[in-house]
Amino acid sequence: MSGGGGGGRGGQGGGRRGGAERAGRRARDRRADGEGEAIARLGGALLVAFERRHRILRYGPGPVQALTPPTGLEKAYANGGIEALPGLPGGRLLAILEAATAVPRGARSGVSKAWIRGGGRRSEMIYARTGSLSPAGAATVPAGTGAGDVLVLERRWSLLAGTREIGRAHV
Fold it and tell me: How many CB atoms lie under 10 A from the CB of residue 33?
């Protein structure tokens, strides 16, 4: 590395800075806003579920809109929010939490909280997980045999071993 004023990668060490830093404000950690975990197409819009600061945003014709969060979503761990978000027939939406934090007995319960919304109504339900697996995604079966059924991908993950098991559930 040369001793010039170029700095390191990503603007570190006195190199070029982003607009927020140039304006004298501290750049904030964007991860605090969460990561997009699930996406669904509903009508002409895309709905994205975020973790950490749990929410569902609607991207579609017009400005981005925040949907009213399901009751109990605020009880989810920062990294245990909505992981599965398939669109359902009739313009409905299913949301399933990854973690079991929003239910009595938590992880020992073997269930995750889930919600269906559509037609001006909301329903709360319980998703029974397979053993120690957690929901990791979901999709609705398109037209044909099984149309409208929901397939849920489940997995178990650990920091030391990574993804250990993958299973599928039919809802």
Answer: 12
Tens-digit pLDDT profile for residues 64-85: 999 988 888 888 777 778 999 9
End-to-end CA distance of the chain: 57
Cβ atoms of 86 and 66 closer than 8 Å: no
Number of Cβ atoms within 10 Å of the Cβ of 163: 10
Is 100 in contact with 83 (CB distance < 8 Å)? no
Q: Determine the average pLDDT of the residues in 28-56.
A: 81
* Rounded distance between C-alpha atoms, residue 96 and residue 83, angstroms: 6
- Rounded Cα–Cα distance for residues 12 and 65 (Å): 34
E strands, the chain, where? 36-42, 45-50, 55-59, 65-66, 82-84, 87-88, 92-97, 111-118, 121-128, 134-140, 150-158, 162-170
**Residue among 117, 129, 123 at smallest CA distance from 168:** 129
